[in-house]
Write a structure and sequence with these properties.
The chain folds into two domains: 125 residues, Enolase-like, N-terminal domain (Enolase-like, domain 1, 2-Layer Sandwich), CATH 3.30.390.10; 217 residues, Alpha-Beta Barrel (TIM Barrel). The protein has 362 residues and is of the alpha/beta class. The protein is 38% helix and 20% strand. Strands 4, 5, 6, 7, 8, 9, 10, 11 and 12 form a nine-stranded mixed beta sheet that branches. The longest helix has 22 residues. The protein contains twelve helices and twelve strands.
């Protein structure tokens, strides 16, 4: 099988309610960059990546003008080879936008592999589970407490049994008060996570962790800069709370460093910004070697396959950067668990005609 054509598209997908966190501010839309890979056997694979509102044009340009010429004529099932080939072709600009672009391509390649084998991805990649616990990932730092509770009510009505809320305000004691209120509202044993989006300096993160540890949280996510390996170790040891991080990491070596330093309990690789499925699986296996559960960030439609494929899957995030309005088969949630589709490949079929009004023309 050979790749014959690469098609990329770029969209600004509006959000019904503007979202907010400690780093990116208010987000009225997210950027979505898609890639479709056609083969000489008529099999088409689709992949996508996203940004929180900036930088998408760079990712799109790399797909259009750099990676397409590297891929045409190649065997799409040689995912390890093509991952290395794409990185080497743009070696001088590794990381950042390039890794996002490679991620979208890799997802499309694995979609082709699944379709060629007539298997859903979770079975092709290991098939450990047929469902995985799912939490609702709120992006709600600037919500009032009343709005937070109303959002929680919506999540509960949808069947979620775990919720994540944002922290990272300039006055961190306000975060403590908000978490205390949500813990009281949801009950002592409800699965509650918090996420600072790297917004705290290390000294504040340690102090805040000590306070948050009183609230029986599943984890404290991205408490400080993702490159501060020693800081994360301190937060876990001195704060007495499990740390989740990884959505900003772009390589296997970054996860190795954080894990071996004792800085994370829940690794959170994101297939859309660290090299795709090929890279995600390596992180999951690395985590398993250290007896750590692996979680995800974003793109729940596809990452449900990854979490169900491996033996150490924990929680899948249902992110509010959702594409349910633009797919043929909406995401499945049953009794608080996410269920991977049995369709060949990743099973996400975008309705591009519905996305068309949001296309960005460059």
């Amino acid at each position: 099988m050979k790749i014959t054509q690469i098609t990329s598209d770029f969209y600004h997908v509006p959000l019904d309610t503007p979202l907010s966190d400690s780093i990116h501010g208010e987000m009225p839309y997210f950027e979505m960059i898609t890639v479709r890979i056609l083969t000489d056997q008529g099999i088409e694979g689709m992949g996508y990546t996203y940004t929180v509102g900036h930088g998408g044009a760079a990712v799109y340009a790399l797909l259009q003008h750099e990676l397409a010429q590297v891929l045409v004529g190649q065997d799409p099932e040689r995912t390890e080879f093509l991952s290395k080939r794409m990185n080497q072709s743009c070696n001088w600009i590794q990381g950042g936008a390039l890794t996002l672009a490679i991620s979208a391509v890799d997802i499309a390649l694995w979609d082709i592999k699944g379709k060629a084998a007539n298997l859903p991805l979770y079975r092709l990649l290991g098939g450990h589970s047929q469902s995985i616990p799912c939490y609702a990932g709120g992006v709600d730092l600037e919500f009032t407490l009343e709005a937070l509770k109303a959002q929680a009510d919506t999540f509960l009505s949808q069947g979620f049994k775990a919720i994540k809320m944002k922290v990272g305000r300039k006055n961190w004691m306000e975060d403590v008060e908000r978490v205390a209120a949500m813990r009281e509202y949801l009950g002592r044993d409800f699965a509650l996570m918090i996420d600072a989006n790297t917004g705290y300096p290390i000294n504040v993160a340690v102090q805040a962790a000590r306070e948050f540890s009183r609230f029986n949280l599943v984890w404290f996510e991205e408490p400080t800069l993702h490159t501060d390996y020693e800081g994360h170790r301190r937060i876990q040891e001195e704060g007495g709370i499990p740390v989740a991080t990884g959505e900003n990491m772009k390589s296997l070596s970054e996860f190795r460093e954080m894990i071996t330093r004792g800085g994370m309990t829940f690794p959170q690789p994101d297939i859309t910004n660290m090299g795709g499925i090929t890279a995600w699986i390596k992180v999951a296996h690395l985590a398993e070697a250290y007896n750590l559960p692996v979680s995800t960030h974003g793109v729940h439609d596809i990452q449900v396959h990854l979490q169900c494929a491996v033996a150490n899957g924990s929680y899948l995030e249902m992110h509010l950067f959702a594409i349910d309005d633009y797919v043929e088969h909406p995401f499945q949630l049953e009794n608080g668990n996410a269920v991977p589709p049995e369709r060949p490949g990743h099973g996400v079929q975008l309705q591009f005609e519905k996305l068309e009004p949001h296309r960005v023309r460059l």
